[in-house]
Amino acid sequence: MKLYVMKDYDAMSRKAAHLIAAEIMVHPDMVLGLATGSTPIGTYKRLVELYEAGDLDFSQITTVNLDEYEGLPATHDQSYRYFMEDNLFNHVNLAKEKSFLPDGMAKDIPAECRRYEDLIASLGYPRLQLLGLGHNGHIGFNEPSDSFKKEVHEVTLTDRTIEANKRFFASKEDVPTKALTMGCGTIMHAKKVLMVVSGEDKRDALSKTINGPITPEVPASILQLHPDVTIVCDEKAAP
Ligand code: F6R
After folding, report:
1. Cβ(181)–Cβ(140) below 8 Å
2. Its pTM surpasses 0.90
């Protein structure tokens, strides 16, 4: 694992955006795996700036997102599709038909999980997968459990995750309790993984991710087994 400790959130975001941009420049038609949440917002802002400056071209890029809430339509302002459009897709020359997320409104959730896993596999998996890190060590919505999940699956969110995400909703009761997420196995198929981590409240999870035992109790710890992981954190999150 390569770890970059940056001065603050802004420096972390710039570094992450430059690492993604470099990959896109070398592989302009690559599959880019994306994450939502507060942490990558600054990274997306910087990518938009690079695009606006004429330094980055997304026209041949395909994107696959890690996860989506169940039960929120794409038009809901807390759906991950909406988040991606708001923070990235609407501001760069990405082809919308080449930007994929799980369908949280699907009637048949197991079939949707299979469809999304097969889609990602048919694209050859991401060349680069961007990740955030949950306070409990989750990646995507792979919550602590007794086994690592291989493929796209349905999860019941833990109370800690619902608590952390309620800031975006009118009340805790409005936070969906279920989601669809890439499995740890899906994530491990990416050629490169880039994780962004910010804030003192993530330090413990990051320390366990890097130095702790590899255990499904800390889903991100599986990244220790991946051959090409870069973590960019700010000083507050540095273990
Ligand atoms: C969302 C995702 C989650 C977040 C994590 C951290 O697509 O993959 O694992 O990365 O919950 O979220 P923030 O950045 O809001 O602390």
Report:
1. yes
2. yes
What pLDDT tens digit does each residue of the chain (239 aa) get?
999 999 999 999 999 999 999 999 999 999 999 999 999 999 999 999 999 999 999 999 999 999 999 999 989 999 999 999 999 999 999 999 999 999 999 999 999 999 999 999 999 999 999 999 999 999 999 999 999 999 999 999 889 889 988 988 899 999 999 999 999 999 999 999 999 999 999 999 999 999 999 999 999 999 999 999 999 999 999 99
Looking at the DSSP bridge assignments, the partners of residue 102 are none
Q: Phi-psi category of 76—alpha, beta or left, where left has phi over 0 and alpha has psi -120 to 50?
A: beta
Tell me the torsion sign for CA atoms 133, 205, 141, 159. Answer: negative
Cβ atoms of residues 186 and 116 within 8 Å: no
Tokens of 44: 């997306």
Residue to mutate (ligand 1; options 34, 36, 116; most atoms within 8 A of CB): 36
- Report how far residue 177's alpha carbon sits from residue 73's, in angstroms, rounded to the nearest whole number: 15
Which of 87, 88, 141, 198 best tests ligand 1's pocket when mutated (most atoms within 8 Å of CB)?
Answer: 141
Which domains, from first to last, does the chain contain? 2-228 (3.40.50.1360)
